[in-house]
């Protein structure tokens, strides 16, 4: 009986079904192991991805925190409501951002501990510096509140004293009082202690004048007390300003910037540590993964060889047939050979034939869909090329430019097929308007905005006959908001505009008058061979309401008719090189200053080479437009 059991087992194992079951069982076990390892690898990779994302989010929130503080210092410090209520949306958001950063750091510490990254000391150091940073900003906040604005704080106390002195019925030299107020305001604007000294000196003269002219002793005493109170409050305000810092290189502002730079450096160091550790982990994961796959492949081929050798001619014929189908790239004319047997091989042949028919059907469907996608892509590119022709039609052509300028060049490099930048000219009798416009976005959205801007500029100047550049920008702002219905929708799209009006000088025909108004744009011009700059108003056309109370202003310059004017968008300024460094406004200004003596067409070629050499293999970040012309 015992001798029959091995014989029966051997007989069962010799069958095709048994061999396949045995082989598939082994392959199934190995596959489960591979899937399990893959799930483990995937879970670990997800944790690593979360760690990297947390670091990136921490860095992003630090930048948001810096921006909120800059906005607070530029907006809220001159907001009377802030001093009256003590409440600021910027500070509220800042508190939320700090809480978010701390929560990200806590989670990062937890995940790094799971991965054995040993980053706790680095994270604790960042949290400690973040606490110091927050405390330093709190001190800055207290000093700003102490300094005050208008009727609040030390500034309010000064105004109270000086107003009481101004209302005095006694005669004294009021010009000295006004001069002291002027020195006070100059100090507040320029943060120059020279004006503080002038203020104190003027107050001494005012005291002497009052002593000489006011005979009522009680009145004289009260007036001198007001001057003393004003002076003491002004000196306190000076000390507060010193402690705050006249700029980012002094006082608490300098300390705050130094801690901020330290935090960014520490986050960058942490990022480098995480990058190194994740690189090592990924290397280990890849090594383990490919080793497992290699082992799986080896075992698979061992059992494949075993099956091939064991199933004889039917398997060989079936394999040759399947290979022929595969070699033909699943051609519909090739079919799997039909095997006339009732065993597993016959069933397998039928299954392969069924699978082949489904694959061939799927290939046909995919090919049909692929052809449709390719056709749609061609139609889309044709549409974009046609849109490019339409957009180019609104730009001034060579004939227009030659009629308006003695010499010119136009560098126009859209990021995509169509552009959000455009330049515009319009001559109305003896008035020549030239504009450079950078619309929100690039590609198709930017092109739509450029068409709107071009149409509105023509309407304002040609139809409405508005010739004042500052007023043109105000009207353009209103027209854009109305065209995009920005009062009713959350739509902040808009445009930055540099607008010039060039007119002949009535007193001297060899000179011309340049009137410039800008919306977050600037202008370079030459004067006696030196490159100079006019800055526009820090306010965009369209978009939000934050800067609408800041009016556009005209700036006038008298130039010789041979001087050069440069108009440009921020595409070149924001272009990055391989190290991530932006080209920058200063670099552009220095470069134009070096080449402005060249003929403008030579300048064009030189600028184009400079752009290509700087960017090299980096993708273009935005539309680039630069217009230079000689008046």
Description:
The radius of gyration is 38 Å and the shape is flat. It has four domains: 24-148 and 253-310; 153-244, de novo design (two linked rop proteins), CATH 1.20.1440; 326-379; 397-630, 4-Layer Sandwich (Phosphatase 2c, domain 1), CATH 3.60.40.10. By secondary structure, the protein is α+β, with helices and mostly antiparallel strands. Mean pLDDT is 83; it is low at 1-12. It has 18 helices and eleven strands. The chain starts with a helix and ends with a strand. α5 packs antiparallel against α9 and α8 (193-213) packs antiparallel against α9. The strands form two sheets. Strands 2, 3, 4, 5, 8 and 9 form a six-stranded antiparallel sheet that branches. A five-stranded antiparallel sheet has the order 1-11-10-6-7, covered by helices on one side. β6 (522-527) and β7 (530-535) form a beta hairpin.
Distance between the termini: 115 Å
CATH superfamily of the largest domain: PPM-type phosphatase domain
**Strand content range:** 5-15%
CATH topology description of the largest domain: Phosphatase 2c, domain 1
Number of β-strand runs: 11
Mean pLDDT: 83
Topology as a string of helices (H) and strands (E):
HHHHHHHHHHHHHEEEHHEEEEEEEHHHE
Weakly predicted, low-confidence segments: 1-12
Count of discrete domains: 4
Radius of gyration: 38 Å
Task: Give the helix tally.
Answer: 18
Largest sheet: number of strands, sense, barrel closure: 6 strands, antiparallel
CATH architecture label of the largest domain? 4-Layer Sandwich
Q: What global shape is seen? A: flat
CATH class of the largest domain: Alpha Beta
* Assembly category: single chain
Decide which structural class fits the backbone. alpha+beta
Helix share bin: 55-70%
């Amino acid at each position: 009986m015992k001798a029959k059991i091995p014989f029966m087992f051997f007989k069962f194992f010799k069958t095709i079904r048994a061999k396949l079951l045995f082989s598939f069982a082994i392959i199934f076990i190995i596959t489960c192991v591979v899937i399990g390892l893959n799930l483990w690898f995937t879970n670990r990779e997800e944790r690593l991805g979360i760690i990297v994302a947390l670091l990136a989010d921490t860095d992003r929130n630090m930048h948001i925190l810096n921006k909120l503080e800059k906005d607070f210092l530029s907006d809220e410090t001159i907001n009377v409501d802030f001093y009256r209520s003590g409440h600021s949306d910027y500070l509220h958001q800042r508190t939320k951002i700090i809480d978010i950063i701390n929560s990200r750091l806590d989670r990062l510490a937890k995940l790094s501990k799971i991965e054995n990254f040993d980053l706790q000391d680095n994270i604790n150091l960042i949290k400690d510096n973040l606490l110091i940073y927050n405390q330093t900003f709190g001190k800055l906040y207290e000093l700003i509140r102490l300094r005050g604005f208008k009727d609040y704080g030390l500034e309010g106390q000064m105004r109270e004293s000086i107003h009481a002195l101004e209302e005095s019925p006694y005669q004294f030299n009021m010009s000295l009082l006004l001069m002291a107020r002027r020195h006070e305001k100059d100090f507040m604007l320029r943060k120059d202690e020279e004006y503080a000294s002038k203020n104190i000196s003027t107050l001494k003269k005012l005291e002497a004048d009052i002593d000489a002219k006011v005979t009522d002793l009680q009145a004289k005493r009260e007036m001198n007390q007001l001057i003393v109170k004003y002076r003491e409050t002004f000196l306190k305000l000076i000390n507060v300003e010193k402690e705050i810092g006249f700029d980012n290189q002094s006082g608490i502002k300098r300390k705050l910037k130094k801690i901020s730079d330290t935090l960014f450096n520490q986050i960058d160091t942490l990022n480098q540590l995480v990058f190194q550790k994740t690189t090592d982990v990924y290397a280990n994961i890849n090594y383990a993964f490919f080793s497992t796959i290699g082992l799986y492949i080896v075992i698979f081929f061992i059992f494949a060889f075993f099956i091939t050798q064991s199933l004889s001619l039917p398997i060989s014929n079936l394999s040759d047939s399947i290979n022929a189908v595969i070699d033909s790239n699943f051609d519909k004319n090739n079919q799997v050979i039909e095997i006339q047997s009732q065993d597993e091989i016959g069933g397998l042949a039928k299954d392969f034939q069924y699978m082949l028919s489904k694959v061939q059907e799927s290939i046909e469907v995919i090919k049909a869909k692929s052809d449709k996608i390719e056709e749609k892509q061609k139609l889309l590119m044709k549409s974009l090329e046609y849109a490019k022709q339409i957009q180019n039609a609104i730009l001034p052509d060579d004939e227009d430019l030659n009629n308006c300028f003695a010499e010119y060049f136009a560098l126009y490099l859209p990021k995509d097929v169509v552009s959000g930048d455009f330049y515009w000219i319009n001559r109305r009798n003896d008035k020549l308007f030239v504009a450079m416009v950078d619309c929100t976005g690039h590609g198709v959205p930017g092109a739509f905005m450029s068409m709107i801007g071009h149409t509105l500029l023509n309407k304002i100047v040609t139809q409405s006959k508005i010739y004042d550049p500052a007023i043109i920008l105000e009207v353009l702002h209103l027209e854009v908001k109305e065209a995009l219905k920005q009062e009713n929708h959350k739509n902040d799209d808009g445009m930055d505009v540099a607008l010039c009006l060039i007119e002949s000088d009535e007193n001297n025909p060899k000179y011309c008058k340049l009137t410039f108004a800008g919306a977050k744009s600037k202008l370079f011009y030459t004067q006696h061979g030196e490159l100079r700059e006019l800055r526009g108003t820090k306010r965009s056309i369209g978009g939000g309401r934050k800067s609408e109370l800041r009016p556009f202003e005209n700036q006038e310059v008298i130039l010789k008719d041979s001087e050069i004017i440069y108009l440009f968008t921020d595409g070149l300024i924001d272009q990055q090189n391989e190290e991530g460094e932006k080209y920058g406004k200063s670099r552009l200004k220095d470069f134009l200053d070096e080449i402005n003596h060249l003929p403008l067409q030579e300048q064009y070629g030189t600028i184009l080479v400079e752009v290509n050499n700087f960017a090299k293999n980096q993708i273009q970040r935005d539309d680039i437009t630069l217009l230079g012309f000689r008046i």
